[in-house]
């Protein structure tokens, strides 16, 4: 299916958020996730089923003031 | 000692981590500043580059407390969601809550700020709200559960110092027990010293250090200014007067005219 990952269109085979992160190269990374604007905690990722057109945000620690 | 929620801190300087020329300069600047709190943010991570992972390991090695912000959030929902994401990633209940209302000045949307603060405090966050010097907004933020306030000095990144001295003094006088951290607008160490001399509890500096020609030296200069300003406040500054008052005794002066 095609989903939007951080604003870019990506094709993924994974059906849930946890597997999709692995597939997209985020395995083991310290990131926080949201699907369609709603925060999805780490523990909920395996149960978070993805659908075609979903918008995923994958955020990591960054410089800030 | 400065107490912010349950943390006791020696340093009254909080340092932002953005816009340094390199990661090593950032590391050295944090050390030179003596800051025990560094602000951080969350941004989109690329699965290929994973830039955030390297940054996070640098910050962890510094051994400072992190204060995640909700920078660039314009709505309550955005700020609350960002706070949740920050809590998970950084493992802290602290959040520097920004709800931006206007892009030219980055002035906080104080209505959205109070609403977001209420939600987050109820959820157990320890909120550091980026606000103006407005007394009523401050009162509402405290009612919402905030136990620290972060009034602006002047617009973020402007380096204009304390724009509204009267307002900041009034805030200090109205809430003598609430830790007040001047956030935003401090450009040079004298601005920081001035804030501390007024009895404000701490300052948060970013651009003034990171954009200095020598950020590490500037971080050290700010550390001294903050220490001097606080010492001056505790020593009790004199009251300014409109007219001259001779400091050398007049009595006993020789008549030589």
Structural description of this entry:
The complex is a heterodimer of chains A (65) and B (257). With 65 residues, chain A is mainly beta. Helix content of chain A is 11%, strand content 37%. Chain A has 1 helix and 5 strands, in the order E-E-H-E-E-E. In chain A, strands 2-1-5-3-4 form a 5-stranded mixed sheet, with no helix packed on it. The longest helix of chain A is centred in the first third of the chain and has 7 residues, at 17-23. Chain A starts with a strand and ends with a strand. Chain B is α/β, with parallel strands linked by helices and 257 residues long. Chain B is built from 9 helices and 12 strands. The longest helix of chain B has 21 residues, at 215-235. The termini of chain B are far apart. Chain A binds chain B through residues 5-7, 24-26, 29-34, 37-39, 41-42, 57-65, and chain B through 16-20, 26, 39-48, 50-53, 55-56, 59, 68-69, 71, 77, 81, 84-86, 88-90, 156-157, 204, 206-207.
Radius of gyration of chain B: 20 Å
Largest sheet geometry of chain B: 5 strands, parallel
Distance between termini of chain A? Answer: 38 Å
Derived structural class of chain B: alpha/beta
Question: Any descriptors?
Answer:
A: 65 residues, mainly beta, 1 helix, 37% strand, B: 257 residues, alpha/beta, five-stranded parallel sheet
């Amino acid at each position: 299916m095609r989903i939007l990952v951080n604003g870019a269109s990506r094709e993924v085979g994974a059906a849930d958020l946890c597997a999709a992160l692995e597939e997209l190269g985020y395995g083991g990374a310290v990131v926080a996730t949201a699907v369609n604007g709603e925060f999805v905690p780490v523990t909920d990722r395996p149960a978070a089923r993805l659908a075609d057109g979903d918008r995923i945000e994958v955020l990591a620690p960054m410089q800030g003031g | 000692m400065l107490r912010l929620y349950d943390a006791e801190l020696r340093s009254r300087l909080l340092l932002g981590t953005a816009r340094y020329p390199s990661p090593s300069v950032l590391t050295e600047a944090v050390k030179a500043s003596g800051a025990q709190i560094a602000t951080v943010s969350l941004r989109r991570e690329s699965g290929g580059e994973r830039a955030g992972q390297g940054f996070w390991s640098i910050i962890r090695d510094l051994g400072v407390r992190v204060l995640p912000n909700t920078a660039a959030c314009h709505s309550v929902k955005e700020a609350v969601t960002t706070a949740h994401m920050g809590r998970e990633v950084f493992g802290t209940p602290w959040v520097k809550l920004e709800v931006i209302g206007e892009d030219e000045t980055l002035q906080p949307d104080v209505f959205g700020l109070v609403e977001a603060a209420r939600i987050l405090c109820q959820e157990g966050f320890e909120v550091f709200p980026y606000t103006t010097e407005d007394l009523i907004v401050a009162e509402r933020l405290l009612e919402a559960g905030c136990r620290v306030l972060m009034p602006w000095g002047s617009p973020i990144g402007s380096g204009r110092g304390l724009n509204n001295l009267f307002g900041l003094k009034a805030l200090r006088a109205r809430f003598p027990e609430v830790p007040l951290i001047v956030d935003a607008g401090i450009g040079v160490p004298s601005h920081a010293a001035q804030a501390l001399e007024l009895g404000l509890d701490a300052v948060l500096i970013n651009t003034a250090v990171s954009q200095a020609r020598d950020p590490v030296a500037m971080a050290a200069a700010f550390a001294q200014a903050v220490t001097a300003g606080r010492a001056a406040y505790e020593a009790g500054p004199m009251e300014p007067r409109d007219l001259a008052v001779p400091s050398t005794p007049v009595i006993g002066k020789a008549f030589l005219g």
